[in-house]
Amino acid sequence: MVKPQGGKPSMRAFYLTIVAIAVVGIAALSYLASRPRRQVGEWDSSLPKLTAQGHVIGSDSAKLEVIEFADMECPACGSWATVTEPDVRARLINTGIIRLRYMDFPLPVHKNTWNAHRAAWCAGDQGKFWEMHDAIYANQDKWNGETTDNPDKVLAGIAQGVGLNMDQYAKCVADRKFQAQIQSNYDEAVRRNVNQTPTFVFGSQVVPGELPYDEFKKYVDAAIAAQESAKKAK
Amino acid sequence: MTRRMLLALVALVGVLVATYLTLYKLGYIGTLVCGTGACELVQTSRWATFLGLPVATWGVGYYVAVLALAIAGTQEQFAGDRRMATALLALTGWGVLFTAWLTYLELFRIHAICRWCVGSACIVVVMFIIALLDYRAQAAPQPGE
Predict the structure, then answer these.
(1) Separation of alpha carbons B72 and B69, rounded Å
(2) Which of B33, B71, B114, B133 to mutate to test the interface with A (most CBs of A within 10 A)?
(3) Residues A71, A77: contact at Cβ < 8 Å?
(4) ipTM of the predicted assembly exceeds 0.90
(5) Of A2, A77, A144, which has the smallest distance from its Cβ to B134's Cβ?
(6) A18, B12: Cβ pair inside 8 Å?
(7) Residue A202 forms beta bridges with which residues?
(8) Over the stretch A7-58, which tens digit does the pLDDT of each residue have?
């Protein structure tokens, strides 16, 4: 027999306790779910302009420059790059509405991310940064820190697939030719208090998280509208 | 309060914790990002999904199963049923093994500890201890046996 402690337990009190815990728990979860999901920040325009350059895709004459701080090994960045970014390129970048500036933010928690950022920059040295960027994200599961201790070997295979001159690529990676540039991108993120990836900057708004296309477009529209009303006010 | 009642209440807390983690993983609470926080790292790792579903969702199902079984065990017709005590011990024991595997992944593969996962692991261990005490009480000679 299950031994009641202190006399026969009251089933009514037990059920009431279950209901009370469930109600409090559901209320807490509802409160958490109803809070704004994104902590949108303000881009501090009083700071000196970007000193690091990153890589840009899109027209110089685009209406808006969107900045992305991203980590090559970050799954959320990988998901955004493979699922949403193709739409962003087709509908916003290729149409001249925005250009996208990719800023490296290799987070210390990701073991192989620096290798991937160096590989992408070395591809950029041969004019194929974006091709390598796409291939690195598409194959993130093959070279990430949970999969391999030798990411350079896997990344070299990806580089070959992209069609790089492999001698030049291998020397670039071995020399860590662009280490300082990646570091300056990283420093820029830190200086801007960016602490997660991906983080997007639309005009004066700093928006963290993997944004679906519609939400991304909403921020683009808002930033362009704000720019235009600021121009009119002048 | 009987041991099985206590087990049901602890399992209910587990349901809530696992539901929170599921909602986080699905993007209903917070934003899916990679940050310096260990929970984000664990939740965005490839180990956070098991057989196509978030591990946290499996956790919800598991805790609901323990909750249902524990509530059933409080009913008069099952109060003296040793098979019920055995089933609760087996279910919570399996939970301990699965949690041990997840903790191994956190420590040695992902190299990050998520405090919510630690909370869930503590709940699983507490449930196992309660189920073990219940099983031992059932196994002991009963008055009149």
Answers:
(1) 5
(2) B33
(3) yes
(4) no
(5) A2
(6) yes
(7) A66, A205
(8) 466 888 999 999 999 999 999 888 887 776 667 777 777 766 766 789 999 9
